[in-house]
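ok so i was messing around last nite and threw this chain in just to see what happens. nothing serious, just curious
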Amino acid sequence: MKRLEGCGTALLTPFKKDGSVDYDAFSASVDRQVEAGIHFLVPLGTTGETPCLTAEERIEVLRVAREHAKGLPVVVGGGTNSLEETRKSMALLEPYGADYFLIVVPYYNKPTQKGLYEYYKAVAASTSKPIIIYNVPGRTGANITAETTLALARDVDNIVAVKEASGNYAQISRFIRDAPEGFSVLSGNDEETLSLMATGARGVISVASNIVPDKMVALVEALQKDDMKAARRLHYQLMPLFKNCFVESNPIPAKAAMSLLGLMENVLRLPLVAASDATVQLMRETLADF
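result:
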């Protein structure tokens, strides 16, 4: 399989006013991503409110994403904090078009590094699909270290990438420097795309690209070409959006922005609620800059 790189969008899951999944809006959202030149798609991640979707809804979201992907790689969120539940999740989704599985560091359990190593090794042995480690300690309460990630990259053939959202630049730099050939480090934070790709990361899994896919594609492609002048210009243009997408918990501000663009309803599932009036106004002002 081709190395995973470029800009991938952590897709929002649209809901109708009655709370049901709006598959028409989701289809249109995927089409918009493809038309903008996005490099891969990431349904059923944190941004997609996946913990609040039923098994049937997760299958249908993936099926629609695959149908509209026009051949682009589809990276599917499948991780939980239980090995058996993660295996069940992958087995449920694999027949419907998953090219890669994005597996979050197990949350709440607070595993040791040895536990994380053994967990990912067992997950990878459960599927023939390539696995992407997702390190986001701000949400999970656990950080997978450079040593553990590099050991997994060396020892397990189908662990092929890490989505790094720790914000620990020294740690991520070590991944980039020491990763085996073909292993991809992907930024998990939009605002770190420039700094990480400038030092060797292969791309980003982006929230902001839901809103401005063309701009994020342009930023990543400028970095791939070492066109730092263009990349810096785009980075600074996008920085307010990067920041404002996280003034409330993701995906609350991003969904408000997509609603302002007329692309989906501003509806989330509990325990998340729609953005405050102040955040909606902030996103309105941010969008006006584009």
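not much to say yet. The domain at 6-227 is CATH 3.20.20.70 (TIM Barrel).
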